[in-house]
Amino acid sequence: MDTTAEPEAGGEPGTGGEPGTGGEPEAFIALDGVEKVFDVRRRKGLLRRERHQVRAVDSLSFTVARGEMVGYIGPNGAGKSTTIKMLTGILTPSGGRLRVAGIDPSRERTRLAHRIGVVFGQRTTLWWDLPLIDSYKLMHRMYRIPDGRYRENLGRLVELLDLGDMLEVPVRQLSLGQRMRGDIAAALLHDPEVLYLDEPTIGLDVVSKTRVREFLRQVNTERSTTVLLTTHDLQDIEQVCSRVMVIDHGRLVYDGGLAGLHEVGESERTLVVDLERECPPVEVPAPARVVRVDGPRQWVAFPASESAAGLVARIAERYPLVDLSVREPDIEAVIAKMYAERAGRTPTQSS
Fold first, then answer.
1. How far apart are CA 50 and CA 317, in angstroms?
2. What does the alpha-carbon distance between residue 93 and residue 82 come to, in Å, rounded to a whole number?
3. pLDDT value at residue 77
4. How many CB atoms lie under 10 A from the CB of residue 214?
5. How far is 243 from 261, CA to CA, in rounded Å?
6. How does pLDDT run across 174-220, given as a tens digit for each residue?
7. Domain boundaries in the chain?
8. Do the beta carbons of residue 202 and residue 169 sit within 8 Å?
9. Half-sphere exposure of 306 toward its Cβ, with a 13 Å CA cutoff?
10. Which residues pair with 34 in a beta bridge?
11. Looking at residue 170, what DSSP letter applies?
12. Which of 26, 50, 126, 290 has the most neighbouring CB atoms within 10 Å?
């Protein structure tokens, strides 16, 4: 199906598009009370199987505007991959309403495929025994990408992702980092408007991760590609995304900026103070407190939401200060604390 022949999605009734203009809806991705329930059978005794339901996604609602880069994070079994599969049309929601560019993914999966790109870190979309370039040629035909556009996109992706030496190599001979870059290029060959990335840097070395993150920022800046990123590597979120959503037990428990996440998680920054000589713990106003003393160096914890300026001024006025530095909070610790607090009051689920 040629995308040039597809009608614009924005005029679909009820999507938020401007009537009569054919414009896109204000919310490019929109979920309203979406649920996904799986029927599971478990062995109960020798011959008997017991059937029960697992609610992987529970009354999930959020919107993503065109061009946003959003981190979508949560523990294993939280419902992240289930959400992505519903957004691509692989799974059908059990309830609620879901739209991507005004399209219902489960009803118009083929139409939507021309507007989205997907990378699953655990599974490749490339043909295993063929050279990498052959996978791209097949996608050229599958998506009916105009020849000129295909050559332009391929050349750009090969350069930005450093794929030149890999094009004639069978996919099965590529390293994990090389294959992942190859998968990202494959997902972007047809100029998708939204890119879903499910653990795109899993197993990659530091250099490969850096290259992928820089590439994603560039694609978003140049083409306003909407990116929804699920990952366990929170540096991906910190370096790529301006917004983060946290899901736990199929429910959205946080939606906002990284700074706000630190406030919700009651995280702390640390002021590392170097004095001229060893001193007793410095006196600081609550809620700041000294958490460690090692010779002339002391560590002072204070809420991440507060400025360090007043604390620094107080210490400099009263103590023989030589040097200091501020260490930002560990986002992984913030989210781990959030999960632990919820685990104490939320029934265990799996997805």
1. 70
2. 10
3. 84
4. 14
5. 10
6. 988 889 899 999 999 999 999 999 888 877 888 888 888 999 999 99
7. 3-261, 268-328
8. no
9. 18
10. 60
11. B
12. 126
